[in-house]
Amino acid sequence: MRAILQRVRRASVSVDGTEVGRCGSGYLILLGVAPHDSDRTARLLWDKVSHLRVFADETGRMNRSLLDVSGEVLVVSQFTLYADCRRGRRPSFAGAAEPAVASRLYERFCSLAEADVAQVGRGTFGAHMEVSLVNDGPVTICLDTDELTTPRHR
């Protein structure tokens, strides 16, 4: 799985002009799923996201997690995170999971978030969506579960 985390003051997502999800202060999470992903990778990614310390403490240092600050979340599916642009001018999306697999794992990730966070907004899987946000910082972080499971090389 791949996720782009944007620390936000607020974010919303609309389909055909109708808002379908929103969050207040917390994360907008753009989420991509690969064919080899599983419930285990969804859990691994959620654990990383929810405990990542990028929110300010009382001294202004990024030292608090989403859970520490009772933050909110908006999760939007985005298969284009698996775009392969190495050849030609049209990206290949062969690295993204098939919709049935991606939808199930997107829902699993959202369910994990809902178990820990009071407000979890969702996009509409497979729909053309319009996302609005007010960045906080800005702080934008890219996470990939393949990198989280590979030992560090020094």
TrEMBL record:
The record's keywords, sorted A to Z, are: Cytoplasm, Hydrolase, RNA-binding, tRNA-binding
InterPro entries recorded: Daa-tRNA_deacyls_DTD, DTD-like_sf
Please state the Enzyme Commission number of this protein.
Answer: 3.1.1.96, 3.1.1.-
Q: Which GO terms describe its biological process?
A: D-amino acid catabolic process
Q: Where is this motif: Gly-cisPro motif, important for rejection of L-amino acids?
A: 137-138
Q: Could you cite one Gene Ontology molecular function of this protein? A: D-tyrosyl-tRNA(Tyr) deacylase activity
Please give the NCBIfam families that the UniProt record associates with this protein.
Answer: D-aminoacyl-tRNA deacylase
What domain notes does the record hold?
A: A Gly-cisPro motif from one monomer fits into the active site of the other monomer to allow specific chiral rejection of L-amino acids.
Function statement: An aminoacyl-tRNA editing enzyme that deacylates mischarged D-aminoacyl-tRNAs. Also deacylates mischarged glycyl-tRNA(Ala), protecting cells against glycine mischarging by AlaRS. Acts via tRNA-based rather than protein-based catalysis; rejects L-amino acids rather than detecting D-amino acids in the active site. By recycling D-aminoacyl-tRNA to D-amino acids and free tRNA molecules, this enzyme counteracts the toxicity associated with the formation of D-aminoacyl-tRNA entities in vivo and helps enforce protein L-homochirality.
- Write down what this protein is called: D-aminoacyl-tRNA deacylase
Organism equals Olsenella profusa F0195
